[in-house]
Amino acid sequence: MAWGGLTLDFWPRRQSREIRLGELTVGGRAPVSVQSMTNTDTRDVTATVAQINRLEAVGCELVRVAVPDETAALALSSIKKSISIPLIADIHFNYRLALIAVDEGVDGLRLNPGNIGSAARVREVVAACRERSIPIRIGVNGGSLEKEVVEKYGYTPQALVASALGHVRLLEDENFALIKISLKSSDVMATLSAYRLLAEAVDYPFHIGITEAGTMLRGAVKSAAGLALLLGEGLGDTLRVSLTAAPEAEIFVAFELLKSLGLRRRGIELISCPTCGRTEVDLIRLAEAVEKALAHIQEPLKIAVMGCVVNGPGEARHADFGIAGGKGVGLIFRQGEILKKLPESELVQALVAEVETFVAKQKMRSGECR
Q1: What domains appear along the chain, each with residue ranges and CATH number?
Q2: What are 5-60's pLDDT values in tens digits?
Q3: What is the DSSP string of 178-232?
Q4: 266-314, pLDDT tens digit by residue?
Q5: CA–CA separation, 234 vs 242, rounded Å?
């Protein structure tokens, strides 16, 4: 339910096939899931597992790891045993690495079958995946299209789609349908056009993203623009926000985007007013402190940080909890009702205590109901 009683149920959702990656359902009516990729050396099991566990802690639901050689491929079983989310092996060109990854127990492959050699090699990989019900994601990137596709279509959305369908046919020829597809470009509108075209041709689930989007701020803006357009048309079953930043940052941006569109609910939604000449509190510092202090809360709560003690509680009455400060003092409020008046220096700590107490009580009630 959104502000004013409106719901986002009117958003269309492309009806895609349903596949499973480990225990996670992708496609169909399943929620849009959030993915990232490690930037550790996969051969370093300890570092890779540590990063995946950090990603899972902030909400990552499936993770991809690079598999550049046999040593990395043979590390996958150790990684898999130490994590709780589905593990996807990223394979390029070497079909033997794909076979090792399957034997090591991965939940999915990212593999373009047209890049691994003969039909016999494709057949061997497909047979191994079919035996273990392991999906294959075909991933087409605008910067690495086949020469013959570019010669025919140029660098266009049609080229992305033609490349993807060529890989799809290789799998369909082997009667393999556990397929997920991604079409990625650094151009937002080209990506949107490509997915629109592909949606007319197949019903496989889509993994979406704007590739090479950029650094933290620029990449977040560009990704949000592209992903919001795609999701607004119901195009997307899993997504990655590709940033030149720590992988954990990708998860944060992804969930903020999905929450803004009403598609997922996880963690706090921070509502904070812009600064102005009437603000009598360091609102930027205060909002950042609240965001950091409540980062561990996974329950979907609206938290307001307002710069005016007069209008703040009223303007943010739809928030579950909030603070409003000015002239060295501030108010703690809940759904517009004032709970406490405190010195400005105590506001953040007091707000965190109120939220944590509320969450603990909610969990206790849920436990009693069960």
Answers
A1: 11-260 (3.20.20.20), 269-362 (3.30.413.10)
A2: 444 455 678 999 999 999 999 999 999 999 999 999 999 999 999 999 999 999 99
A3: -EEEEEE-S-HHHHHHHHHHHHTT--S-BEE--TT--BHHHHHHHHHHHHHHHHH
A4: 888 898 888 777 777 888 999 999 999 998 888 999 999 988 766 666 7
A5: 20
